[in-house]
Amino acid sequence: MDIKDCFYLGKVTKPWGVKGQMVLFLDVDEPEDYAGLDSAFVETKGALVPHFFNIDQLNGNKVVVTFEGLTADEAHALAGRSLYLPLSCLPKLEGNKFYFHEVVGFSVIDDEYGDIGTLEQVIEYPAQPLFQIMKNGTEILVPVIDEVIKRVDREEKKLYISAPNGLIDLYLGDINK
């Protein structure tokens, strides 16, 4: 399994108890969606290694697990490593909710300017993710916030937005009006 075919689920954080159990931190919005999880890929020296486990306790984003076939020392050695799942394991989103990787390549349609280009990537800055949109070699950066996103058309691969007033002018000027 290649990392490009997976999504980041979280991390193995620390030991819990004395029986080799480990705490996982799930970096997801809805941790209860993963209550039935019984395996994940653990990044080990740049490779993704599958590991099976039993969930002993789920408390918000923290999960206590017992890894199958590992001694306590082997389980403890996983601390700090990243967890991944295949993209196919992501819960399906509908409406205006989307995964960042899902909308890459979509045409972006602004309510004032019309087609302003193709979404190349979502840049994840700590304070605010940004859509990176390219139009004829010009980069346009638009904040990823609910007030901006008007509609996601998955069939037509179009993302309809209402960019903050004056933002598109900064990049394209009046040429596109």
Principal-axis shape: elongated
What is the radius of gyration?
Answer: 20 Å
Enumerate the strands of the largest sheet in spatial order, edge to edge or round the barrel. Answer: 1-2-5-4-3-6
Major sheet summary line: 6 strands, antiparallel, barrel
Tally the helices. Answer: 3
Q: Into which percentage range does the β-strand content fall?
A: over 45%
Give the mean pLDDT.
92
Low-pLDDT segments, ≥5 res: none
Helix content: under 10%
How would you name the oligomeric state of the polypeptide chains in this document? Answer: single chain
Order of helix and strand elements from N to C terminus: EEEEEHEHEEEEEEH
- Content-based structural category: mainly beta
In total, the number of strands is: 12
Distance between the termini: 46 Å
Summarize the helices and strands and which ones pair or pack.
Layout: E1 6-16, E2 21-26, E3 39-44, E4 47-59, E5 62-67, H1 72-76, E6 82-86, H2 100-103, E7 107-110, E8 114-124, E9 129-135, E10 138-143, E11 149-153, E12 158-161, H3 167-172
Parallel strand pairs: 7-12
Antiparallel strand pairs: 1-2, 1-6, 2-5, 3-4, 3-6, 4-5, 7-8, 8-9, 9-10, 11-12
